[in-house]
Design goal:
It is built from eight helices and three strands. With about 220 residues, it is mostly helical.
């Protein structure tokens, strides 16, 4: 059980790391908002301490005390850059850690995805090469079986690729056109004349009887499948 969990985690590690990075972005934004309030309070406390600091001129202390000097001005003027850096680091250390982890997860996720894409491309190239070799061998040794297999593959691909809105003509096959009818989910081969005749038959049946399926059952020659 544990081995299965570990193998799944390893197989989806890029997506897991990318999801962790997304969570980290949200967490960083939340922590930044909280730490910003914390930093603002630390700055105000530091400026309040300046009111009792004898190194600050008395008139400036009175200005600070009477709110005549703004907190940012007093902070910039009388608190050294070193102290400001320390206060900033103490206030925003959680945001910095979250940002570093988030960035690390994003880089690791990108690196893992690039490696996985390269490995997948290499494996796909090898498989394609081997398939071509096997197909060539099959065509050389068993041409009829090769033809039937490719016909089945083409029909399956046509059902997946073709639109379901109208009768679609795909390509020529043995002098006839290959069509796919999405309503019946059938692939059939017919000439343009047969298609026109079938359209006329359907239109006539709808006008006269309003029941196309009944008419086709009673007149098998109208069917071109």
């Amino acid at each position: 059980m544990l081995e299965q969990i570990i193998s799944k985690v390893i197989a989806h590690r890029a997506g897991i790391m990318l999801g962790g990075a997304a969570v980290g972005v949200v967490a960083t934004a939340i922590l930044a908002a909280k730490d910003s309030s914390k930093h603002h309070m630390e700055v105000e406390f530091k400026v309040m301490d300046l009111e009792d600091d004898i190194t600050v001129p008395e008139e400036d202390r009175e200005a600070i005390e009477n709110f005549e000097m703004s907190v940012p001005d007093a902070y910039q003027k009388y608190v050294s850059k070193k102290e400001r850096a320390i206060i900033f680091a103490k206030s925003y250390w959680r945001t910095g850690m979250a940002m570093a982890v988030t960035f690390g997860l994003m880089v690791l996720s990108h690196h893992t995805m690039v490696k996985e894409i390269a490995a997948t491309s290499a494996a796909l190239g090898i498989m394609t090469s081997k398939y071509k070799e096997l197909d060539a061998t099959l065509k050389e040794r068993y041409p009829e079986a090769h033809k039937k297999i490719h016909k089945i593959i083409d029909e399956r691909n046509a059902r997946k690729e073709l639109s379901n809105k109208e009768l679609i003509k795909k390509e020529t096959y043995d002098g006839r056109q290959r069509y796919y009818d999405p309503w019946s989910k059938q692939i059939f081969y017919a000439t343009d004349a047969q298609i026109k005749e079938a359209e006329c038959t359907v239109n006539e049946s709808m006008a006269n009887m309003g029941n196309v399926s009944k008419h086709l059952r009673n007149n098998p020659s109208s069917q071109i499948f």
